[in-house]
Structures are given as structure tokens and as C-alpha cells.
Amino acid sequence: MEEKKRIRFIDSHYHTLFSIADGDSIEIVYPDGKREERVCTYIDEYHTQVGARVFHICQFAEIMEANGKSYCPAECKEKEERKEAVKGEKKTGTTRMERSRR
Fold first, then answer.
1. Who's near 69: CB < 8 A, 6+ residues apart?
2. Which of 23, 32, 41, 54 has the fewest CB within 10 Å, making it most exposed?
3. Please, are residues 62 and 71 in contact by the beta-carbon 8 Å criterion?
4. pTM for the complete prediction?
5. For the segment 22-73, what is each residue's pLDDT rounded down to a tens digit?
6. Residue 25 per-residue DSSP state
7. Quick one: which H or E segment has residue 53?
8. d(CA 53, CA 41)
């Protein structure tokens, strides 16, 4: 079975930021905090489809930087949401009690 292709995401200086498997999603964060998830499709080593548009990987980085947007694997959203939930629990003094198995 052939391994899924990896899509590389870089900054505008060609420094690798992260990679995702073909068909996985990224999350784009706008300057106002709005978030959108986009499915990505591998085209070749230097091109990817993000949502409905095809980009050269450096073109995508330049557009994101010029518009003040950031991006990360969609899974980073889940990690960030967990961190925010923990922060909220600490602020309110709420704690979760784990049941122990004996």
C-alpha cells in the first residue's frame, strides 16, 4: 500500500513550518480571530490545493503573511481549545475529579 503524500507548509523564506498528509486540513486564523478549516490536497512537491484554490507553497505563505493570517494543522486547533479550557478552569477554580479504579 502506498504511503500518503505529505504536504509541506513553509514561511516566505522557505523555512518548513509543518507538514500534513494529503487530504488533511489546516486551520487559517485571521487577524480578527476568525478561524477557518480548509482541506488540502497534494498536487506535487511545490503545489497544493487549499480549499478550492491551488497554490505554490511559497505563494501561499506570502499571501498569508501579507494578510496577517496564520495557519497550522487543524489538529492544533484542538490542542489550543484544550489549553483554553484548562485556563478557564483555573480562572474559575473549577477542577475535574478523576475516578480511580480500585
1. 28, 29, 30, 31
2. 32
3. no
4. 0.73
5. 999 999 999 999 999 999 999 999 999 999 999 999 999 999 999 999 999 9
6. E
7. strand 53-56
8. 10
